[in-house]
Amino acid sequence: MSATDTTVALPLPDSLLAALEEAEREHPEACMVLRAVRSDVGAIIDFEWLWANPAAARALGHDAEFLRGRRLGEVSAPDGLADRMDVLRQVVESGRPRADNFAEGEVWLQSTAVPLRDGVLVRLRDVTSAQRMEEGLRDTLDWVRDVLESMPDAFFTVDTDWRITYVNRKAAALTGHTQETLFRRVLWEACPEMCGTPMERALREVATEEGYRLFELRTARERWHEVHTWSSGRNISAYARDVTDKKRVQAERDALLAREHSGRLEAEALAQRRTHELMAARERLVQSEKLAMAGQLAAGVGHEINNPLSYVAGNLQFAVEQLTALARRAGAGPAVQASLGEALEALREAREGAERIRVIVRDLQTFARADELRLSPVDVHTALEFGISLAMTHLRSRAQVERCFGQVPQALAHEARLGQVFLHLLINAAHAIPTGDFEGHRVTVTTRREGAWVLVEVSDTGLGMTPEVLQRAFEPFFTTRPLGEGTGLGLSICLGLVRSMHGELTATSIPGMGSTFQVRLPVAEASVQPQVPAVREADGPQRKRVLVVDDEPQLTAVLRRMLGRQHDVVVAHSGREALALLEHDDAFDRVFCDLMMADLTGMDVHAELSRRRPELLSRFVFMTGGSFTERARTFLQAVPLPRIDKPFEPGLLLALVDSSPPRPGAVVRHPAREG
């Protein structure tokens, strides 16, 4: 300290500092008290630490005792907390708190400074994850904008006040204006030529009914566009594709048909057949284009979502378990118990939201997947019980479940996919029944054999379907539920899965009396199943060694938390690192390996071990967030190893470890006591 510097003591009694230290010692957020260092003339020239809690000491990388009496510039980086000198000075001089963000090395911190007499109390919160999430969201929005700007078709959106909220270059060019002059202007003022056209009528109908319209619009003397308009939240979107060439072909075809009709009656019949075929082909083309776009988006985006969703869901589960155990401990006051209860409730709601995302992504990926299923004899009663147990949360408050199981042989099917079909049919039956009359409604599950088929029927006493709805029940994206409560993919996915198992799915319904969905599956040929030797359980749970191979650090951290309390977990962050590790240490009971990695993929690891150490492959389980490459699909069909989809349940991971094949020379170890 120079001769011109003076330090004015912060008037905080030792008892108050002691109380603050006691209250903040275990607080996860950093908290510190700084007092002002003034010059002879009373100007604030620096701040020095009077006290800091352990979280603050860790955030700054120094011991709390080391910080006491130190000045900002001695400890913090010039562009970190030390750069907040002017902010802290304003807090002291104005007497008003201040909050903002700044970087301390690699970490982004949120700072809240509260004035004290001649000093400040500063609380720091690590917001690095939120900052990165915002950056990722901005990157995603930029990507979406690039896609919309690069496509050859016109696209624009308006809000409820008919102000243009987005218009791509193609749409702006059709109006003869620039994007800048159109943005935020009222549509009818910016483009008065639209008034009174089918475009205006369709947009206003969509705005009123929150529905969807598809029509053709003549935009110039010789130009035609196929226009899709739909309501999306608070916006109305319009997508226009140039179909001039198609209209020209149709016009030429119509002229040809007219000439043929005037010549011969036989030519008229032929022309009618051709017209019918062309119209059917046109409808199939439109539908296939929609499905192809949905499939590509589902496969690519689903894979990118599943990786972060895995560690989000895993961390939520871990946090719920830890806080539940903490809440059960005695000694916590009512206020603490109430806070823990609210935190647990919030985490459970977040976990339910993550589960909804997982189910939607899974359904979209199933809808998009084109790989063949490996079929085997399946007990339909087992698959039905699986579906009933998972659907019971939906059925419990609506209807009683009746089982009318007959003597049926095993069906040729895929057990997991068949369970998914039954689960969706049962949930669909539950949603068709209004709540409040549990005793008056039934969901009946019936099985019987008819010749070479095994029949499974799921019947309900719900609202039923009109003939128009029944006709479109299996159509993709068709739903009668309110916006936001259904994707319209469920029954179409079920139909595709049943047909992939060489079966058929049909439905009958009477409005007001209920519906029946019937699944027909071929009977499996009788085969001798190999007997699995019984495994004698040890005296206690066996502690095993597990290797996790994934290039997502957050995902490996979640797996370590899920499995680490019962097993020894080793992590490799790339396929190359895993191969090097297995070269000198192969004593692992189970290996969880990601299929798609940047360095070496799981397929590359499998190929290398097949050549050098094939005996290790029986311990592998491959993890995938949605394989969308042709090589990955071929690999999963050809390699008879377990596979789990992200995100996964903790119970499934533990079960796979417990069921790992015996390792030669392995020693049974029990879990170590936690100290």
From TrEMBL:
Q: Which CDD domains match?
A: HisKA, PAS, REC
Residues covered by the Response regulatory domain: 545-661
Q: Which UniProt keywords apply?
A: Phosphoprotein
Q: Could you tell me which residue ranges the Histidine kinase domain spans?
A: 300-525
Reaction(s) catalysed by this chain, per the record, are: ATP + protein L-histidine = ADP + protein N-phospho-L-histidine
Q: Which Pfam families match?
A: HATPase_c, HisKA, PAS_4, Response_reg
Query: Where 4-aspartylphosphate occurs, residue numbers?
Result: D594
Identify the SUPFAM superfamilies for this entry.
ATPase domain of HSP90 chaperone/DNA topoisomerase II/histidine kinase, CheY-like, Homodimeric domain of signal transducing histidine kinase, PYP-like sensor domain (PAS domain)
Reading the lineage from the top rank, the first entry is: Bacteria
Q: Which residues form the PAS domain?
A: 140-185
Enzyme class, first EC level, given as a word: transferase
State the InterPro entries in the record: CheY-like_superfamily (IPR011006), HATPase_C_sf (IPR036890), HATPase_dom (IPR003594), His_kinase_dom (IPR005467), HisK_dim/P_dom (IPR003661), HisK_dim/P_sf (IPR036097), PAS (IPR000014), PAS-like_dom_sf (IPR035965)
Q: State which Enzyme Commission number(s) the record gives.
A: 2.7.13.3
Its name, as the record gives it, is: histidine kinase
Species the sequence originates in: Corallococcus soli
Q: What is the lineage of its organism?
A: Bacteria, Pseudomonadati, Myxococcota, Myxococcia, Myxococcales
